[in-house]
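Bench notes, afternoon.
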Amino acid sequence: MKIEIIKTPEGFTFDKSHFSSRQKIANLYKTKLKYPISNQGFDLSERDREAYVAGDEFGSYMRLQRAMKHDTRLPQIVFRDTETAKMALDIARKLEAMNKEEFLKSGYPYKFLDEIGLSGVVVSG
């Protein structure tokens, strides 16, 4: 399914109506925050797992909190340019494709913001 990048007064975005609701996304992250770190991140390289998930539990917790607030599927999240919006759409699709168990075990939610950089993300409204 082709999704177009849309220009808004705040920045660039895409149609997010077919992605999970805000509540479902929040619930997934809240569950993940309680999920044992020792069971997460094995889909990453050993180096990335150490850097993003297992190396520093407080840092990992903060990284996941930030991801929860800036998840690219959330309607209030827009992007500074079309390239960042396209990357964010790919991220949204990857996150949406995961079932609950995959999401809980994945290291991807810890590192996706590094792919687009927080400087490319705008929280609107």
